[in-house]
UniProtKB/TrEMBL annotation, chain A:
This is succinate dehydrogenase. The keyword Thylakoid does not apply. It is an enzyme of class 1 (oxidoreductase). Residues 1-24 have a biased composition (Polar residues). GO terms for cellular component: plasma membrane. Its EC number is 1.3.5.1. It is found in: Cell membrane. Residues 529-663 form the Fumarate reductase/succinate dehydrogenase flavoprotein-like C-terminal domain. The active site is at R357. Gene3D superfamilies: FAD/NAD(P)-binding domain, Fumarate reductase/succinate dehydrogenase flavoprotein-like, C-terminal domain, Succinate dehydrogenase/fumarate reductase flavoprotein, catalytic domain. It comes from the Bacteria. It is a peripheral membrane protein.
Automatic annotation (TrEMBL), chain B:
The keyword Cell membrane does not apply. Residues 1-102 form the 2Fe-2S ferredoxin-type domain. One of its GO terms (biological process) is tricarboxylic acid cycle. This is Succinate dehydrogenase iron-sulfur subunit. NCBIfam families: dhsB (TIGR00384), PRK07570.1 (NF005746).
Length: 664, 250
C-alpha cells in the first residue's frame, strides 16, 4: 500500500494554490499482526507466535530508541537487558527529564486489591467505552492484562507508591470510574514511574548495552529498501549532524499538543520525530483527537508561555460555577449562592462536577462563550472549595489538596482557601499519532512507535491514569517482544555510511537548517508559533465546525508560506542554538496543524475529544455517528501542501457493544 | 515594571564570559522565565543573540531550569524552582543578576546552560535496584512499613536539578546522592545492593569532581523540593557501615 521510498523526493515547497482540504481516499489499512480468536488469549498467542533471537545473536543487533520517557526509557532498559545494542536519544540534558515526569494523578491496574469487582475485563471495558468506541479492542485488552505486571515491575524497582498503614499498596478511584484501581505516589506518579525507568536505563548504560545520547534531536528517518534503518540526529551542543544506523528504530517521542502553542506539555515537546517518519511513508492516525483537560490555570496575559494543570482530583470536592448574571463584576465572595450558576450540577445532575474531561471542558467553554466567564479576558470559571471547607474543615481540605493549593497560589498569587480558584480547559494529551499495528509497528517496516507518539489505545478520549499505563506497557512488555520477532525474521546487512539513502537524508537535514538560517526575515519563531496555536485553538480546539475548519485550512498554509519567507533565526547551525531548534519544530507543527484540521473536517461526527458542531443531539450533547465513522483515519503524506490520502481502518467491536455516552 | 538585568553571557565552554546589562519591561503575572522570553524576543528582533537557558516543563518537576538569581540557586523564594518563581516578587526599578549554576562538576556550555551529566554518572554507578523486566514478584507480596515508604518517597522527591551543588561552598552533591541512597535504602527491595551501592556511588561522586560535605546545610536551604538534610546522615552511616563496618562484600 505505502511504498516508503516513493515519498522521499516530494517537493518541499507549497503549491500555493488549491485547497488543502482536498484529499483522496486510498485502500483500507488493515492490522495484520493481531491474532484472531478469543480476545483473552490473543496476546499470549501472539507472544508464543514470535520468532526468537538467539541470545548470542542479540549482541550484534542494534536498536535505536528516540525518546526517553516512560515508553522510550522502559523499552531501552528492557531491550538492553535482553542483550541488544541500544542507542537512546533525547533532547533533554538527561533522560530523567522527559515529560512523563509531569504526570500527576496515577496509573491504572486491574489488581482488584480492593475486592470491589475490578478485573482485566472491566478495565478493558471501561477503557473502550471511555475512548468513545474509537480504539481497537485487541490493543485495549492487552493493555488491561499487562497493567498488573506493570505494578509488580515498578514496585520491584523501588517506585514508592502510596501505601496504607498495613504496608500494602493504596489505590484511589479516579476519573469517574466506579472501582478503586489507580495506584499513585502523591501527586507525582509520573515522576516516580519515570525515575524507575530512568534508573533501569542508567543501569544498562553502566552495563554497556545502552549508549545514551542526551541533547540530541532526531531530524530525519533513514529508510533503506523500504525499511527503517536509522536516523539523522543533531548534537544540540555542537550542532554536528550525525548518522546512526540500526536493525530497527523505535519512536517514543511523545505527543504533539504543543501545536496549540499553549498546552500543559513541556516547552520542548514536539512532533518532529513522528512527522519526519510520516513524511517518509508512515501513516498518521486520528490527528484531530486531542484531549482538553478541564482543570488548568487560566491564561494571565499575552506573555503566557505554557499552561499548568491542576489535578482532576480537585473536582471531587470543588464546585464549579460562574455568575448567573451577565457582566457581574463583583468579587466571587460577594456573589450570593442564589446568584451563582453551578452549571455542571445543573446540567448533569447524576455526575455533577465529576463528569468526564471532555464534557466538563465543553461546558466551561459554553458559559464563557455566553460572556459569563471570570478573570482576565473572561476565560475562566470558578472552582470553589468553600462548601468543602465548611463541611470537612480547613485541615482536612489541606491534607487532601494542600500541595495543589500551594502550587496554585505560587502561580496566581491568590489563596484558594480564601478566594475560589479560577480554572479553564487546556490542551493536555493527544490520542492521535503514528498508525501502528498490534505489534506497534508503523507502515514502514522496522519502524516501531510507542507511548503517546502512537495512536493505539485511547480512541477518541483518554481516561485518567491511562497514559502512564500505556507508556509502560508498550515500553516494558510489548515492544521488546515484537521488535525481537522482526529482528529474528530479517537478518539485515549493515547500512554503509555512504549509502545514497543515508546521504540523501543527511542532505535534507542540512539543506533545511541552511534554509531556516538564511531567511533572515522580521518575525521570531515564537510569533509564528503563537499565531498557529491561536488558529488551532479557535478552530480545532474544544468545538470544531465546518466553517471554522475551512478558515483554518485557508490560514495555515498562508502562515506557513510566511514562515518560510519571513522567519528570523539568529546564530549558526554549528553551536547551541535554541532558536534554530524551535524553528525546525514549528516548521513541522505548521504542516501537522493542517492535517489535524483536515482530519477534523472529514470526521463529521462528535466523538470523545472531538466535538463537531454539526453533530449534536437536540439538547446540545455530542452525537457519535457509528454508521459512518466507526473507523480510524490513517493519513498518507504526499508532499507539503499537497492533498494527502486517507486510508481507513475499520473498527470492529466484538465484545463491548457501542452505546451513546450519557452523564445526565 | 521596568527591570535591569545583569545576565551572564558566555559563547561556549571556552569563552571567558561576562555580565551583560539589559533593560526589560515585565508584568507581575509573568513567571521569571516568561520575563526572559520577553527579553529574548526583543534581542532576536534587534538582531542580537538571545540568552540561552535550560527550561522544559515550567511546572517545577522536570528539574531542567537551573539559574542562580541574585546569588541564590532558583532565586529568592523558598521551595521554588526558577520556572515557578513569579515577577510579583519584584518591584519596579529592581536590578536582577542572573548567572549559571557554578560548580567544577557542572561546566558551562553556553550562557546560563551547564552540563549536569555528572548526575547521570552517579546514578549509573548504582542508583537503581537491579530488577530486570519480567522478574518481579507480585507487588503486594512484601509489605513496606508506612513510615519507611513515606521516608523513601520524601527522598525520591529529588528532581536532580543540581541546586544543592550550586549552593554548596564545596560543590558537593551529597544531598543528591543521599536522597537516592535513602530512597532505595529505606525499601526492602533495596537491601541486597545497599552497601555496594553506597561505595560505588560515593566513588563516582568523587571521580566526577564533586567536593566533600562539611555540613553547611546550604544545599537543603536551596533545594526546591525540600529534601531533608538527614539524607546526608544516612549516606554517612551507610558508607561507614559498608567500609569500616565491613558490610560491603567482595
Amino acid at each position: 500500500m505505502t511504498d516508503a521510498n516513493s515519498h522521499q523526493n516530494h517537493s518541499d515547497t507549497d503549491s500555493g494554490t488549491g485547497l488543502y482540504s482536498d484529499y483522496t481516499t486510498g485502500e483500507p489499512v488493515v492490522d495484520k499482526a493481531v491474532p484472531s480468536g478469543p480476545i483473552e488469549t490473543r496476546w499470549e498467542r501472539r507472544r508464543f507466535g514470535v520468532k526468537l533471537v538467539n541470545p548470542a545473536n542479540k549482541r550484534s543487533k542494534k536498536v535505536i530508541v528516540v525518546g526517553s520517557g516512560l515508553a522510550g526509557g522502559a523499552a531501552s532498559a528492557t531491550l538492553g537487558e535482553a542483550g541488544y545494542q541500544v542507542k537512546t536519544f533525547c533532547y533533554q540534558d538527561s533522560p530523567r527529564r522527559a515529560h512523563s515526569i509531569a504526570a500527576q494523578g496515577g496509573i491504572n491496574a486491574a489488581k482488584n486489591y480492593r475486592n470491589d469487582g475490578d478485573s482485566v475485563y472491566r478495565l478493558f471495558y471501561d477503557t473502550v467505552k471511555g475512548g468513545d468506541f474509537r480504539a481497537r479492542e485487541s490493543n485495549v485488552h492487552r493493555l488491561a492484562e499487562i497493567s498488573r505486571q506493570i505494578i509488580d515491575q515498578c514496585v520491584a524497582q523501588g517506585v514508592p507508591f502510596a501505601r496504607d498503614y498495613g504496608g500494602l499498596l493504596d489505590t484511589r478511584s479516579f476519573g469517574g470510574v466506579q472501582v478503586s484501581r489507580t495506584f499513585y505516589a502523591r501527586g507525582q506518579t509520573g515522576q516516580q514511574l519515570l525515575l524507575g525507568a530512568y534508573q533501569a536505563l542508567e543501569r544498562q548504560v553502566q552495563a554497556g548495552t545502552v549508549e545514551m545520547f542526551t541533547r540530541h534531536e532526531m531530524l530525519e528517518l533513514i529508510v533503506v529498501e523500504g525499511r527503517a534503518r536509522g536516523i539523522v540526529a543533531r548534537d544540540m551542543v555542537t550542532g554536528e549532524i550525525e548518522v546512526h544506523t540500526a536493525d530497527a528504530v523505535v519512536l517514543c517521542s511523545g505527543g504533539y499538543g504543543n501545536v496549540f502553542y499553549l498546552s500543559t506539555n513541556a516547552k520542548g515537546c514536539n512532533v518532529t520525530a513522528g512527522w519526519r517518519a510520516h513524511r517518509k511513508g508512515a501513516l498518521f492516525a486520528n490527528p484531530c483527537f486531542t484531549q482538553i483537560h478541564p482543570t488548568c490555570i487560566p491564561v494571565s496575559g499575552d506573555h503566557q508561555s505554557k499552561l499548568t494543570l491542576m489535578s482532576e482530583s480537585l473536582r471531587n470536592d470543588g464546585r464549579v460555577w460562574v455568575p448567573t448574571k451577565l457582566g457581574d463584576d463583583r468579587g466571587p465572595n460577594e456573589i450570593p449562592h442564589e446568584e451563582r450558576d453551578y452549571f455542571l450540577e445543573r446540567k448533569y445532575p447524576a455526575f455533577g462536577n465529576l463528569v468526564p474531561r471532555d464534557i466538563a471542558s465543553r461546558a466551561a467553554k459554553e458559559v464563557c462563550d455566553e460572556q459569563r466567564g471570570v478573570g482576565p479576558g473572561g476565560l475562566g470559571v470558578y472552582l470553589d472549595f468553600d462548601d468543602a471547607i465548611q463541611r470537612l474543615g480547613r485541615k482536612a481540605v489541606e491534607a487532601k489538596y494542600g500541595n495543589l493549593f500551594e502550587m496554585y497560589e505560587r502561580i496566581t498569587g491568590e489563596n484558594p482557601y480564601e478566594v475560589p480558584m479560577r480554572i479553564y480547559p487546556a490542551v493536555h494529551y493527544t490520542m492521535g499519532g503514528l498508525w501502528v499495528d498490534y505489534d506497534l509497528q508503523s507502515t514502514i517496516p522496522g519502524l516501531y512507535v510507542g507511548g503517546e507518539a502512537n495512536f493505539s489505545d485511547h480512541g477518541a478520549n483518554r481516561l485518567g491514569a491511562s497514559a502512564l499505563m500505556q507508556g509502560l506497557a508498550d515500553g516494558y512488555f510489548v515492544l521488546p517482544v515484537t521488535i525481537g520477532d522482526y529482528i529474528a525474521k530479517h537478518n539485515l546487512d549493515d547500512v554503509p555510511e555512504d549509502a545514497p539513502e543515508v546521504q540523501e537524508a543527511v542532505k535534507s537535514v542540512t539543506d533545511r537548517i541552511d534554509q531556516l538560517l538564511s531567511i533572515n526575515g522580521t518575525r521570531t519563531v515564537d510569533s509564528f508559533h503563537r499565531e498557529l496555536g491561536q488558529i488551532m485553538w479557535d478552530y480545532c480546539g474544544m468545538e470544531r465546525s465546518e466553517e471554522g475548519l475551512r478558515k483554518a485550512l485557508d490560514r495555515i498554509p498562508e502562515l506557513r508560506r510566511e514562515f518560510w519567507s519571513n522567519v528570523k533565526v539568529p546564530g549558526t547551525g554549528a553551536e547551541l542554538n535554541q532558536s534554530l531548534e524551535k524553528a525546525g519544530r514549528v516548521a513541522d507543527f505548521l504542516e501537522l496543524g493542517e492535517l489535524m484540521c483536515l482530519d477534523a473536517l472529514v470526521r463529521r461526527e462528535s466523538c470523545g475529544g472531538h466535538f463537531r458542531a454539526e453533530s449534536q443531539t437536540e439538547d446540545g450533547e455530542a452525537q457519535r455517528d457509528d454508521e459512518n465513522f466507526s473507523f480510524t483515519s490513517a493519513w498518507e503524506y504526499t508532499g507539503r501542501g499537497q492533498a494527502p490520502v486517507l486510508h481507513q481502518e475499520e473498527l470492529v467491536f466484538e465484545y463491548v457493544h457501542p452505546t451513546q455516552r450519557s452523564y445526565k | 515594571m521596568k527591570l535591569t538585568l545583569k545576565v551572564w553571557r558566555q559563547r561556549d565552554a571556552i569563552d571567558k564570559g561576562r555580565l551583560a546589562t539589559y533593560d526589560v519591561e515585565a508584568h507581575e503575572d509573568m513567571s521569571f522565565l516568561e520575563m526572559l522570553d520577553v527579553l529574548n524576543e526583543e534581542l532576536i528582533t534587534s538582531g542580537e543573540d538571545p540568552v540561552a537557558f535550560d527550561h522544559d516543563c515550567r511546572e517545577g518537576i522536570c528539574g531542567t531550569c537551573s539559574m542562580v538569581i541574585d546569588g541564590q540557586p532558583h532565586g529568592p523564594q523558598r521551595a521554588t524552582t526558577t520556572c515557578q518563581l513569579h515577577m510579583r516578587h519584584y518591584n519596579d526599578g529592581d536590578t536582577i543578576v542572573i548567572e549559571p549554576f557554578r560548580s567544577g562538576a557542572f561546566p558551562v556550555i553556553k550562557d546560563l546552560i551547564v552540563d549536569r551529566g555528572a548526575f547521570d554518572k552517579v546514578i549509573q554507578a548504582g542508583g537503581y535496584i537491579s530488577a530486570n523486566t519480567g522478574s518481579a514478584p507480585e507487588a503486594n507480596a512484601n509489605a513496606v512499613q508506612k513510615e519507611h515508604a513515606d521516608r523513601a518517597f520524601a527522598a525520591a522527591n529529588c528532581i536532580g536539578c543540581g541546586a544543592c551543588v550550586a549552593a554548596c561552598p564545596n560543590g558537593s552533591a551529597s544531598l543528591f546522592l543521599g536522597a537516592k541512597l535513602t530512597h532505595l535504602g529505606e525499601l526492602p527491595q533495596g537491601q541486597p545492593e545497599r552497601y555496594q551501592r553506597v561505595v560505588e556511588m560515593v566513588q563516582t561522586h568523587e571521580d566526577a569532581g564533586f567536593g566533600g560535605c562539611t555540613n553547611t546545610g546550604a544545599c537543603a536551604t536551596a533545594c526546591p523540593k525540600e529534601i531533608p538534610l538527614d539524607v546526608i546522615s544516612q549516606l554517612n552511616r551507610d558508607y561507614l557501615a559498608a567500609t569500616v563496618g565491613g558490610k560491603k562484600k567482595g
